[in-house]
Amino acid sequence: MLQTFDAVCLAGSLKRAAEHSNLTQSAVSMQIKRLEEVLGQRLLERSNQGLRITPAGEKLRAHTRNLLRLETAAVGDMHETRLAGEIRIGVPTDYAPSLLSVALPYLNANFPGVIVSVECDLSRRLREKIARDQLDLAIITLEPALDEGDILWREALVWAQPARFCGADQPLPIGLLDVDCPLRDMTLSAAKRQQGAFRVAFRSTSLASIQAAVTDGFCASLLPASTLNFEQPAGVRLDGSYGELVIGLLRSDAVRPQIAPLAHFLKSTLSLMAPAERVRVTDLQFAVHRSGERRVILANEAK
């Protein structure tokens, strides 16, 4: 029950925790209910906005992490060889906060003999460093023609365009990432699908800066739905027919005993941190299916 509770806290969703634990959602719900009955306290508050961990739940989660860490240590002591040594992990800057705030604390707690080094860079550069054995693991945006990595999650994309530019006679101003990455290429392809000409009005190496330029009405661009907090900014029209980014985990071909178990650990942990499973935007509904399943987009035209 404690492992299930910890998975729910990390995922922020009963459904996602159920998929991660290979349980049904009802089974997860029953385990949480049973745990609350045993302790006589409410651990999770459920609402339309999702799950919130109560103060009692936070207290139990701290104890749970300690117990799970002791379990891992006990199992490690029983093995003839313990995982130790350096593990080099590459991650794009946009995903570094998730890795640092959640995955790495868990990794350090469960594999105390492993020394973690993190390098932030562009996905395409990280792929090259994996090939040259300069990294052991890398979280990147996968490109089907190049990669065979493990899929962590899929990120729905939307074309976000300020309404004041719709039907305008002037070239459409767009925001473009000024780095060599798949999203930049996809943004240019999406811009070519718009009616009329376009011009690059805003360049930045920061996705957050481009998102701000779009929501402030300065330009249009292709954005991950999660950057908009799954809400429709005022005065911005959204179109969800532009595919998705696939975020995955690459590993080095070098033979090191710590790579495989740590890759499995990161995959199971990071897959719980994917963007919200179901998001509603005005005139758009996204249903996101993970673990390699196809994402379904239902676009409802305004009537």
What does this structure look like?
This protein is an alpha+beta fold and about 300 residues long. About 35% of the residues lie in helices and about 25% in strands. The protein is built from nine helices and 14 strands. It has helices at about 1-10, 15-20, 25-40, 55-80, 95-110, 125-130, 180-190, 205-215, 260-270; strands at about 45, 50-55, 85-90, 115-120, 135-140, 150-160, 170-175, 200-205, 220-225, 235-240, 245-250, 280, 285, 295-300. Strands 3, 4, 5, 6, 9, 10 and 11 form a seven-stranded mixed β-sheet that branches. Helix 1 (about 1-10) crosses helix 3, helix 1 (about 1-10) crosses helix 4 (about 55-80) and helix 2 (about 15-20) crosses helix 3. The chain is flat. It starts with a helix and ends with a strand. About 30% of the residues are buried. Residues about 275-303 have low confidence and may be disordered.
Total DSSP helices: 9
Task: Give a short account of the largest sheet.
Answer: 7 strands, mixed
Content of β-strand: 25-35%
- Rounded average pLDDT: 77
Rg estimate, integer Å: 21 Å
Give the strand tally: 14
Q: Which structural class matches the secondary elements?
A: alpha+beta
Please tell me what the overall shape is.
flat
Q: SSE order in H/E notation?
A: HHHEEHEHEHEEEHEHEEEHEEE
Helix content: 25-40%
* Span between termini: 47 Å
